[in-house]
Amino acid sequence: MSIPSNLRTWVQIDLAAFRHNLKAIRARIGSTAGIIAVVKADAYGHGITRVAPAIVDQIDLFAVANVHEADELAALGLGRDILLLGPCLPDERQAAVDAGYIVSVSSAEEASAVAGLAGTRSCALNLKVDTGMGRMGCWHEDAAEVVRQIVKLPNLGAFHISTHLPAPDEDADFTREELEGFGRLAAEIKAIAPRAKFHALNSAGIFEFAGFAPDYVRAGLVLYGSCYPDIYQPQIQPALSWKARLVLVRDVPAGRSVSYGRTFFTPHQMRIATVPVGYADGFPRQVSGHDAAVLVHGKRCLVLGRVTMDQILVDVTDVPDARVGDETVLIGRQGGEEILARELADKAGTISWHIFTGLKPRGSYFYYDSDTGSTV
Ligand SMILES: *Cc1c(COP(=O)(O)O)cnc(C)c1O
């Protein structure tokens, strides 16, 4: 792919990575469970209008956070049902029902209020059950009774019953108990609501507890090729690379201060390159002083001093042929080296989800397919 030489920064998305990652998910969960592709927050910053059409043939449902995101997705006309993961405001319910979205509810009262807006049409609901996330849903001990109320709704259409795991990558013992409890609940509820579809697993759950995938899994981060815990990283491919061009290369004598706050002084003569991205583009300011690196000519080059709004300064002393205009990689691969979103996240004291959804590069997005070699 040739990138215009006057472009300072850009993101490249490899659509083949999604196919690969969906195969990896399928390999873990087996052939019976369906895949709900979580494309909230603009497909985790990857661009929903390009990602959703690229994966639609390999997934069963889409999930987004809210009605606003669902409307953007629905406008693409991809012909898959859309699950709203978050609660609706009372004044959003009518639009959600009219559009036929699967509305997540936390109580029988909320279910009945939503269904009431559908008139004689059928209404699709997802009853959330709180098994430890503490964010939405009815309490697990009340769930059977809530389902008894909901199945009385005359116009109940698709009916999902789901939970969300708070710690699948951090507390295996708790999660196993949580999933066993949800499994027992599902068995009990099936007698009351035989058509209900159950789901619980997010990305970490898919890797760590694939055996607990009943009707669907909800795949977010793994789809984009990042995962926790990182032992599973070799099974998936990052879809996104973030690149920029060096805009300035300078020789800096020993003893000069670099960037705001003068937190770094050159210990000896150094060659320092300016990369035209900063925290305004989503390069996290929190990596300042934590030895974050970028790749230049396939070599790791440390970020020196603080990240500024529009620029970072990197040590290219060991890359003597680095020139203005050369490509540098902030996330992605160059030569034999790779910087994962997860690495940048770790250095910033945050998580890959946060890095992806915070990307706002003042440049362009390019989509390509590494299987066919085409730019799309
Ligand atoms: C965001 C979200 C997911 C996807 O989580 P990942 O860890 O990114 O796979 C699944 N379920 C719910 C309810 C979510 O909010």
Automatic annotation (TrEMBL):
| Gene3D superfamilies per UniProt | Alanine racemase, Lyase, Ornithine Decarboxylase, Chain A, domain 1
Q: Which UniProt keywords apply?
A: Isomerase, Pyridoxal phosphate
Q: What is its EC number?
A: 5.1.1.1
Q: What class of enzyme is it?
A: isomerase
Q: Which residues carry this modification: N6-(pyridoxal phosphate)lysine?
A: K40
Annotated active site = K40 (proton acceptor), Y260 (proton acceptor)
Listed GO cellular component terms? Answer: cytosol
Span of domain Alanine racemase C-terminal: 239-368
Does the keyword section mention Isomerase?
yes
- Residues reported in the UniProt entry to bind substrate: R135, M309
Q: Kindly list the biological process annotations in GO that this record carries.
A: D-alanine biosynthetic process
Q: Which cofactors does it use?
A: pyridoxal 5'-phosphate
Query: Which Pfam families would you find in this protein's record?
Result: Ala_racemase_C, Ala_racemase_N
Molecular functions per Gene Ontology? alanine racemase activity; pyridoxal phosphate binding
Q: Which reaction does it catalyse?
A: L-alanine = D-alanine
NCBIfam families per the UniProt record, alphabetical? alr (TIGR00492)
Q: What does this protein do?
A: Catalyzes the interconversion of L-alanine and D-alanine. May also act on other amino acids.
The similarity comment for this entry is: Belongs to the alanine racemase family.
UniProt protein name: Alanine racemase
- According to its UniProt entry, this protein's organism is Terrimicrobium sacchariphilum
